[in-house]
Amino acid sequence: MGPARLSRTRHRSRYCLLVRTPKQILAEATTIAVVGASRHEEKSAYAVPLQLKLHGWTVYPVNPYAEQIWGEPCYFSLAEVPAPIDLVNIFRPSAQAADVVRHAITVGAKAVWLQQGIVSAEGRALAEAAGIDYVEDRCIAVERAINRLSRL
């Protein structure tokens, strides 16, 4: 009998390219821009990124309708964020996700993460073509908690 052959199949899942797992993406990120961050405490777009901030990540809220969130200045767009962005976390409707992915690619983000309930085949294709990591329909705070990740 000859040597075993390894199968090299690609699996479509909630993240593509599988260059890095969601855990690796979050663990290796230091700067996260949150598009659609909310100033309303009762919304997940407020609480989820706040958890990341409280666990040591540098979090930049991106919301053209707010001046401050969590005591941090808000930015009108990703292009205005004053630091290199490791990860863009998206809290926008699925129909708007591809445009945010385009902007993330333009500013040189290393990864894009669409929150739970947000999916975009076009966004996935854009990220794949640009060679950046992509996660969709997954909560970044749950990933942080399950894997006990912290930047502190």
Topology:
Elements lengths: L14 E2 L5 H7 L2 E5 L8 H11 L3 E5 L5 E2 L2 E2 L13 E4 L3 H13 L4 E4 L6 H10 L2 E3 L4 H7 L6
Parallel strand pairs: 2-3, 2-6, 6-7, 7-8
Antiparallel strand pairs: 1-8, 4-5
Helix pairs in contact: 3-4
CATH architecture of the domain at 41-146: 3-Layer(aba) Sandwich
Query: Main β-sheet: number of strands, strand sense, barrel status?
Result: 6 strands, mixed
Arithmetic mean pLDDT: 89
Principal-axis shape equals globular
Structural class: alpha/beta
State the assembly state of the protein chains. single chain
> Any idea what the CATH superfamily of the domain at 41-146 is called?
NAD(P)-binding Rossmann-like Domain
The total count of strands amounts to 8
CATH class of the domain at 41-146: Alpha Beta
Describe this structure in words.
With 152 residues, the chain is α/β, with parallel strands linked by helices. The protein has a domain at 41-146: NAD(P)-binding Rossmann-like Domain (Rossmann fold, 3-Layer(aba) Sandwich), CATH 3.40.50.720. Helix content is 32%, strand content 18%. The protein is built from 5 helices and 8 strands, in the order βαβαββββαβαβα. It has helices spanning 22-28, 44-54, 94-106, 121-130, 140-146, and strands at 15-16, 31-35, 58-62, 68-69, 72-73, 87-90, 111-114, 133-135. The strands form 2 sheets. Strands 1-8-7-6-2-3 form a 6-stranded mixed beta sheet, sandwiched between helices. Helix 4 (121-130) links the parallel strand 7 and strand 8 (133-135). Helix 3 (94-106) runs parallel beside helix 4. The radius of gyration is 16 Å and the shape is globular.
